[in-house]
Amino acid sequence: MRTNRLLTFFAIAFVALAQQNSQDLTQLLQSNTNLSEFTTLLTSYGDIYANLSFQSQVTILAPNNDAFNKIPYSSLGPAFEANQSQIVRSVLQYHILPGLHPSGSYNGTFSFDKTWLQDASYTNVTGGQVVGGVEQAGDVNIFTSGMGTRSTLITANLQFAGGIVHVIDNFLIPPNTFTQTVPQFNLTAAGGAAEYASLAEYANTHKDLTIFVPQNAAFQALGGTLQSMSPPQLQRILDYHVINSSTVLYSSGLSNGTILRTLSGQNVTISFASNSLFVNQARVLQQDLLIANGVMHVIDNFLDPNTPSMTANPEIPTAPPLIQGTSLTENMVPFTSYLPTSVTSFDTRSATPTSSFGATDIGKGADALATATTSASASRTSQSAEKSPADKADSFSLGLKVLGGLIGAVYWTIRIV
Asked: 104-115 pLDDT, tens per residue?
């Protein structure tokens, strides 16, 4: 692995010195015909484009032309078709990362990098919404975003005077609110229970939130008992699944033995055993599902605030429920009737968009997202026709570009090696 990264560094350094960073962003985009659609989109937002032209260290995740062809069949389709410029602007900002993130800087552990998406209408994460990045088998780099979207790195480390461009095969989707996200992962019971227990507003709006969300099966196992609880009684249990922290706790920040304070005031303990992550006795089934104001981790069982000292037993697939209660039949999922009518489950078998992305309860940008049409035609309308094209930024002098290339090479030595 170290040898591969050294080779990656020398390849990047060679290109940097050979080209002397002679091309600016405009020249780079124009020389890559598979980015023609992205170039048109970017230059239609003159302020963003001009700002990029004068950056010294920035990473752009640029969707290729094929990614644009997929828009009508994604949750971005309605916003693009209706030419909702503020939403499209936020999408564009979500593809820009401060700092240099060459492909060799990613490894088998997820990293979560801040982006330019900081508008409170669409995100409530300190420092900007994040994108997940990881290197998978075969040296394939994957970027993850809202609604579990995966984008594969197609062409890496295209350099320009201000940074690097990575070409990806799918648009990144800015994360949505908790209420809008849970149905996409078949967590409808948790979403409805939060509404019933008056916890949904907090889950949708509180800054830097981390939630351990029980799967639907966990709700079914206790459905009869949970449904008989008053909203305050259920809220006490749900509060024990919400971490009271000033930072978002992605999986990369959850280590063995970590003790976390919950919204209920009691602690939970993180453990790692048999290649699985646990919180108390519950096994984490899915990690790092991004939401507009933080992250969700799906767990297989309820956490019981009355037994905070319970520990994991990795020898059994699923621990028995700690909370005593009566179950429901398999086809009955409790609390789903409390979900807002605009929220529907995502059908992965359909190529038709079923929801709009966006932080629908965070700010003023939400309403347009929540009410956007859920069907899109196969053709995409031109973006922001009312905007004037950006003026091209003046090129740096050759001497500064050479110096920039040398500085970039030293920087990548530190980042990659």
From this structure: 999 999 999 999
